[in-house]
From TrEMBL:
Domain Luciferase-like: 10-207
GO MF annotation list: monooxygenase activity; oxidoreductase activity, acting on paired donors, with incorporation or reduction of molecular oxygen
Provenance organism: Paenibacillus agilis
UniProt keyword list: Flavoprotein, FMN, Monooxygenase, Oxidoreductase
Protein name: LLM class oxidoreductase
Pfam families according to UniProt: Bac_luciferase
Highest taxon, organism lineage: Bacteria
Length: 319
């Protein structure tokens, strides 16, 4: 997914929004197989435990970890990404057990986008205090990393006490990238030091001013990364890719969706790459065309401009 000064492309699920019937998700995994075979860099799933009609959408409906395990068995190479796992709502032991299991079963293909949560209904449902979720988020990140990295961790945390036991399995390649989403109510300094990467909203996408503002944000973050080491930046956009190749970049739904032809999309991706974005996750839920058509056009006409990086083959997966 990631390399300095380069940009790759992933696809955000669901490919069609839930609107009261699960039937819209039929055949989605078949298209994910096509995404994998077409050599997109990633597929992304959202984490929405409870559907709140007042908030607007149900995410990709299935539990993200269960669904990624299913997709791991249906794919061979594509990275499997959460966008984003709500680290404040689950205990770090459960997060680490699920994440490490998927990582091993998939041969090391898991990347965790993580967030502190922004749906107000979820916190009282879990019996949690939303006003102090920034503290729980930091403690969960620390606890999670101790579990997956240490063979016999000694943990003293407000989230629990642990000694003389081990979490199994360990991740396939020794670790799982944690990509902080937005601010997650943390300082830029904390994100620069403690994240393995940063996922932010893209700013405006209808013209070059948004990518220019995004470049300033990315630069400010990278200047704070200890030792100047490379950490990737990601962004995403919901697109309505129309058949007219030269259809201009046009904001819809107050700028929440971008309608464009592929020439405009390629131009936006080039602007993002110049801004320092290393991976773009594209959602096609609002597309006026069938998902299969959009995926095919992206694969044939856009992906060659932003190819997925060569890397090692997935590790042993014949469990």
């Amino acid at each position: 997914m990631f390399a300095p000064n380069q940009l790759t492309i992933g696809i955000f699920l669901p490919l069609t929004f839930y609107k009261g019937q699960m039937d819209v998700l039929k055949g989605q995994a078949d298209l994910v197989e096509k995404i994998d075979q077409s050599n997109f860099a990633s597929v992304w799933v959202r984490d929405v435990p409870l559907f709140d009609p007042n908030f607007g959408d149900a995410g990709q409906v299935f539990d993200p970890f269960v669904y990624l395990a299913y997709l791991a068995a249906r794919t061979k190479n594509v990275s499997l990404v959460t966008g984003s796992a709500i680290f404040t709502l689950r205990h770090p032991i459960d997060l680490a057990k699920a994440a490490s299991s998927i990582d091993v079963l998939s041969g090391g293909r898991l990347v965790l986008g993580i967030a502190s949560g922004d749906r107000p209904v979820e916190f009282p449902a879990y019996g949690l205090d939303a006003d102090h979720r920034e503290v729980r988020f930091r403690e969960t990140v620390e606890y999670f990393r101790e579990l997956i990295h240490q063979h016999s961790p000694a943990i003293q945390s407000s989230l629990g006490h642990l000694k003389g036991v081990e979490l199994l399995p360990k991740p396939a390649a020794g670790g799982i990238p944690l990509i902080v989403t937005g601010s997650s109510r943390q300082s830029l300094d904390w994100i620069a030091e403690h994240s393995d990467g940063w996922l932010t909203y893209p700013q405006a996408t209808a013209n070059a001013s948004g990518p220019q503002m995004l470049a300033q944000k990315i630069q400010a973050w990278r200047e704070k990364i200890p030792g100047g080491m490379f950490k990737p930046h990601m962004t995403n956009e919901w697109i309505d890719l129309v058949e007219d190749v030269n259809y201009p970049r046009t904001p819809l739904r107050g700028g929440f969706v971008l309608r464009t032809g592929r020439a405009g999309l390629i131009q936006l991706l080039e602007e993002w790459r110049a801004a320092g974005v290393n991976h773009a996750a594209l959602g096609i839920q609002f597309s006026s065309r069938p998902p299969a058509e959009v995926i095919q056009e992206l694969a044939e006409e856009v992906l060659p401009h932003f190819p997925t990086h060569a890397g090692p083959n997935p590790l042993f997966t014949r469990w």
